[in-house]
Write a structure and sequence with these properties.
Layout (H helix, E strand, L loop, with lengths): L5 E6 L4 E4 L2 E4 L4 E6 L39 H17 L4 E7 L7 E10 L14 H6 L2 H12 L1 H4 L8 E6 L3 H5 L6 E2 L16 E5 L6 H4 L3 E3 L18
Antiparallel strand pairs: 1-4, 2-3, 5-6, 5-7, 6-9, 6-10, 7-8
């Protein structure tokens, strides 16, 4: 599917200040993606991140499958973003976690903020048979998150020679300011699809990708320093938001 076949409506309030040249977001970005009612059947490329998408519903129950890459305007990303919106609306920030990517081959101490995940927290409304954990929300969307991060968001630091051994880490939802102020530690997400519970269903989780605007496209957006355990390298500090 070509990018021209998708319409993105961005709705956000962005308030930024700078600490050591690191932008701090006070309001999260939420991606609202809407496909056109009619798509040119002759357009090149497949569904998903390039290539042909797997249509086996059983095999897709636990993972947002992607194949190759053709830009951010793809069906899996759109579905993940729309699901995130609904989960965030229904269950609030308590159901969310901020997501960071670490590229050891680029910078062992640098963690790039790449968006948020959300998960269902109501057993009566979940599509699976077990409530998803924060780690499951990331593992089930790992490929989607990493493909978007390294190819669309920050290829300068996450793709090519730096793409080997990329790691995903999580922090409390909407904690960007606290992360920059060294007030929170990160939790590394390990495991594989085999780690997902038998009752897990990917429709119970969503992903809201970070979007760069303005100078961020070239200079990069939010990133912070942490040690290999995810702990701040320096003491916590306060920010004068009036500046």
């Amino acid at each position: 599917m070509r990018l021209s076949d998708l319409v993105f409506i961005l709705s956000f309030l962005k308030v930024s200040c700078f600490v050591s040249n690191i932008p701090i977001r006070k309001a999260s970005l939420t991606l609202f993606a809407k496909a056109r009612s009619k798509v040119n059947k002759n357009s090149s490329g497949g569904a998903g991140f390039g290539g042909k998408a797997n249509t086996d519903k059983n095999s897709n129950r636990k993972v947002r499958a992607v194949s190759g890459f053709q830009g951010s305007g793809t069906k899996p990303l759109r579905q993940a973003a729309n699901t995130f919106d609904q989960l965030r609306k229904d269950y609030g920030v308590e159901s969310c976690n901020d997501v960071y990517v670490r590229a050891p081959l680029n910078d062992e101490e640098l963690f790039w903020y790449v968006g948020k995940v959300a998960r269902c927290s109501d057993e009566s409304k979940m599509e699976g048979t077990s409530l998803p954990t924060a780690h499951e929300a990331v593992i089930s969307q790992k490929r989607l998150i990493l493909e978007y991060a390294k190819r669309e968001l920050r290829p300068q630091n996450l793709s090519g020679p730096f793409s080997e051994g990329l790691e995903l880490w999580i922090a409390p939802g909407d904690s960007e300011m606290d992360a920059v102020q060294n007030k929170v530690s990160f939790d590394k997400v390990g495991g594989s699809l085999a780690s997902l519970s038998d009752g897990f269903n990917v429709n119970d989780v969503g992903y809201n990708p970070e979007i760069y605007v303005g100078d961020e496209v070239h200079k990069g957006g939010l990133r912070v320093k942490r040690d290999i355990e995810g702990n701040p390298l320096k003491p916590a500090f306060e920010v004068n938001q009036a500046v």
